[in-house]
Amino acid sequence: MMSELIANLKYKVRSIKASCRLIKLLEIDTTGMNKEGKEYLQAYKYNSYIRKSRVKITSSSFEAKIRKPESLEQLRRLKKDYQEAVKEIAQINGFHSVSVDLPDKYYYKMIGSN
Questions:
Q1: For 27-79, what is each residue's pLDDT tens digit?
Q2: Which residue of 4, 22, 38, 47 is surrounded by the most CB atoms within 10 Å?
Q3: Residues 6+ apart with CB under 8 A from 7
């Protein structure tokens, strides 16, 4: 019972760390941007969608859900980057086969297994 609880906690911590790493890979760096500028506001809006992304890791599976932005320009940027970022996070956590699941209206989903 106690070992099962510790194992679940271990996977929860790994999921949180992987979510943070995924968000850092996909976010646009706003350092040095003028906070009143159009470029900063677009990056801020894009980052607010990216921060809703989550990774769930269990002993045998990996699932990443990435929130889709609403604007077409931001959606193009995300489409270009998200698969490579998710594959990198999956490999760091020991998952080798990662595939794109059918996306829903609001999220891209990628799933994987050992």
A1: 999 999 999 999 999 999 999 999 999 999 998 899 999 999 988 899 888 88
A2: 22
A3: 59
Question: Residues with Cβ < 8 Å from 100, sequence gap 6 or more?
Answer: 83, 108, 109, 110
Token look-up 């990662």 returns 98
Contact (Cβ atoms closer than 8 angstroms) between residue 103 and residue 83: no
Q: Measure the CA angle with vertex 110, ends 97 and 44; round to 5°.
A: 135
* Planar angle of CA 102, 21, 18, nearest 5 degrees: 65
pTM for the complete prediction?
A: 0.87
Nearest by Cα to 18 from 50, 57, 49: 57
Residues 67 and 50 sit within 8 Å (Cβ to Cβ): yes
Could you tell me how far CA 1 lies from the centroid of its own chain? Answer: 31
State how far the Cα of 63 lies from the Cα of 87, in Å rounded to an integer: 11
